[in-house]
Amino acid sequence: MLAAVALVAVGGWLFWRQTGGHGGPTARGGSPAPGRTAGGGTGAGGGPGRSTDHGSTHRPDGKGDPHGSLKGRTVVIDPGHNPHNSRHTGQIARQVNIGTARKECDTTGTATNDGYAEASFTLDVARRVRTLLEDQGAKVVLTQDGDRSYGPCVDERAAIGNKAHADAAVSIHADGSAAGNRGFHVILPARVTAGPADTTAITGPSRQLGKRLADRFRAVTGSARSNYIGDGTGLDVRGDLGGLNLSTVPKVFIECGNMRDAKDAAQLTDGGWRQKAARGITEGITDFLTR
Prior knowledge:
Elements: H1 2-18, E1 74-79, H2 89-92, E2 95-97, E3 102-104, H3 118-135, E4 139-142, H4 154-163, E5 168-175, E6 185-189, E7 193-194, E8 197-198, H5 203-221, E9 235-238, H6 242-245, E10 251-258, H7 262-268, H8 271-290
Helix pairs in contact: 3-8, 5-8
Organism: Streptomyces endophytica
InterPro entries: MurNAc-LAA_cat, N-acetylmuramoyl_amidase_3
Domain MurNAc-LAA: 158-286
């Protein structure tokens, strides 16, 4: 059984590489109008709702390799939501096609009980990740940099990664679940073939990206894997998120913690911890791209 799983995984990876690492058209249907991430209290849908030593890019002190280890690589970082979405409720409520259904263009995201918005958290961490990745030679594209009045919509977020022919894409979020639900989890794309969505070529590499991301995030931040999603693995598979369904490049979401839990919120609102989160995300991406 294990041998069969291994053969399938290797075969999926080879298929992805043979198709140029992008599994399909550059941007299905072109780039949509500006305007989301799926979901209730989080950009990935609200509350409850893993490496060899060969080729390691990490020094014993846990820091990444020197300058240039990611030269020639393109990474798309997607800061979930937008701080200005709440001023454009009509625009972000517009329905877009995510393959399996039609969903809102975007949402406002969640916030801590003290009012620190998920959109502010995701943009801050995304900018920190960009700095760390560029320091290693990567070309980094943000889907938004606080420079848009709202959005972009989830379908455009996927299209940005596709158009950039990204070697990896990560969407950054924080959850909005019940108090007591703690820890981070990484969302992987399910196999979806519906309408404009076809994740066949990216599910394998996306899982590898997600495992490395979860491992490094845990090691760097000290945060536990989610106690309410993923059965202790810190991994979740979903087929209802447009940002994943419409991607033709390896892509995952990371929910860095639960904003509605006081202990998690204390980390998420701390600038020092957010720098650790950024480093964990950067090291996970680096692991994936250099092994």
